[in-house]
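I am still learning, so would you mind making up any protein sequence you like and the tokens describing how it folds?
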Amino acid sequence: MSSRYAALSKDYTTLIAAVKAAGLVETLEGKGPFTVLAPTDAAFARLQQDAVQVLLAPEAKNELSKILKCHVISGDLSTDAILAEIAANNGAYSVDTIGGCSLTFRAAGSNISVTDQFGDIASLVASDVKQTNGLVYAVDKVLSPGAPDTSHEIHASRIFAGPNEYPPTNFAAYGILAFKSKVTIYDQERQKMLCEAFVNAVLPSSSLVVPTAAQMVTVWPMDSAEHAKAATKANITRTCDEALQDYGLAVSQKAVRDAVASGVAVDGDGPFLIAWAPPTQIGKPGAVVLKADLSTVTEYKMASDIMHRWVVEIENRPELWRSGTFDRSLIATAREWADHYGSLIFSVVGVK
């Protein structure tokens, strides 16, 4: 982290690396004072598989910064001060972090816990580690930077999934990026461009500390679980090479058939962003289905714009699908997309 925190290095190697990767060293070396809730290496190890690797990647810098700022409070909060505030506030003391997160401290005797906005609870396992610009408490859990009913920035996610991992379970809703054929020398450049737009616009599910039940995930199908894992772990410069080489065409074609069975027209060359909510309605007549047709997209700028709009206007708006089905306001979204890209790009089927 910095020389001021060198004494913490034994049990906080992941945190120190994360602070550097997020560009927060200068912030935490500032005058302060700060109270830092420092997740231990064991706390980071409790995240989803490969989450730490993904969070430390350059493209996850902003998300990582949000997470870490959720652990830093302005001012000195000693154990005695926290316990006094808890007692004065009917057993629950709420405080905002420098990242805008709301945390709530509670106590059972002299044991202090902190609850984030998702209701996840971390214990303060070591306290009052004095630093020159504040205090550090060890916590046994990585806290979340947002609340499920108000944050619109942490719900979008993506995964690479093998045939037996699709459809994914435990997600609020899901979609798929469906190609009609595997990559060839004739369309390799375009497919890689579309893949890179997708990968750069949507964060991996494992990089989010929110539960999968609070995510709408977009799946890139792979032809095996092993290849899905390899694509997930690949260096960002190699991700799309892996993803295209071992693309799960059988799963993709089934998704297209399921969309057609629900009344969706899938006539272009694709690929197609297709989403269902609730997931149990996939392939059923009358299911609510979203489709973004990328058949006419040939330039990265447009592909990137569409992917980002998919994230911001669909995945990052959980109020549209939180109840288990898509909201009527998506029809207005479809009209806006039509005005911007043309009527063939985005459509909604099944909304009454």
About this structure: The two ends are 54 Å apart (CA to CA). Residues 1-7, 147-154 have pLDDT under 50 and may be disordered.
